[in-house]
Amino acid sequence: MSRVAASIQQFDQSFTPEELAFMNSLRTPARVQAFLDEVRYPSGDENRSPREVLRQRKAHCLDGGLFAAAALRRLGFPPLIVDLQPDPGMDDDHVLAVFKIDHYWGAVAKSNYSGLRFREPVYRSLRELVMSYFEDFFNVHGVKTLRFYTRPINLERFDHLDWMNTSAGVDSVEVYLKTVRLLPVITPAQAALLSSMDQRSVAAGTLGINPEGTYQPK
Fold first, then answer.
1. What b/e sequence results for 121-150 when a residue is b if at least 16 CB atoms lie within 10 Å of its CB, and e otherwise?
2. Is the dihedral angle over the CA atoms 209, 32, 179, 138 positive or is it negative?
3. Paired sense of beta strands 119-123 and 80-85, if any
4. Which of 7, 53, 67, 165 has the largest count of CB atoms under 10 Å?
């Protein structure tokens, strides 16, 4: 058995028969997204492993991104994440579980903001996928904050930390994300010219939001 297969088997063995049946029902990226849309976006900084997300029915963006990566892994996709980041102090970062179908990129994600979730696999490049989030990536003041993104990170590198089953493994992923080289989305000159979000767009993007889970800019 390969190391990857052994990790997936260890993940599956942690579930009850009912939980495993539910995981087996997540047969497409869209079904993985539908599950994440149903779970609560909590307040606080606690990290949850994919197993804990399923049991607690709670997930913030890191938890949800890793759950999606684990669920996509069970479908045969590599467990890849991309981190979208603002300038420090402007906003929270946002983790996407990314996948490719027929050479086109798509994404599954959990967010407090309605526009930062699923993307169909229709994007020709990773940057094209990332830019599809630009207009929806704003903070509580309506400021568009997306500035950087990472290249895809393969979570296989964290298998030895059991990231699919333990929150400590997820903590290690979070620490690693703070060290990764960032690719710019826009230039400082472009950032200086950005307009604020209009009220209708803010209302649409915050539909169903949990106010206690929002990032408060410093």
1. bebeebeebbebbbebbbbeebbbbbbbbb
2. negative
3. unpaired
4. 67
Q: Which residues, in sequence order, are CB contacts of 209 under 8 Å at separation 6+?
A: 41, 112, 113, 114
**106 pLDDT more than 70:** yes
DSSP H or E run through 99: strand 94-101
Q: Is 42 within 8 Å of 73 (Cβ atoms)?
A: no
Q: Tell me the C-alpha distance between 47 and 151, whole Å.
A: 22
Mean of pLDDT values over 139-149: 97
Cα dihedral 58/60/62/63 (nearest 10): 0
Rounded to 10 degrees, the C-alpha dihedral 59/166/164/35 comes to -20
Question: Per DSSP, what are the bridge partners of residue 97?
Answer: 81, 108
What pLDDT does residue 158 have? 97
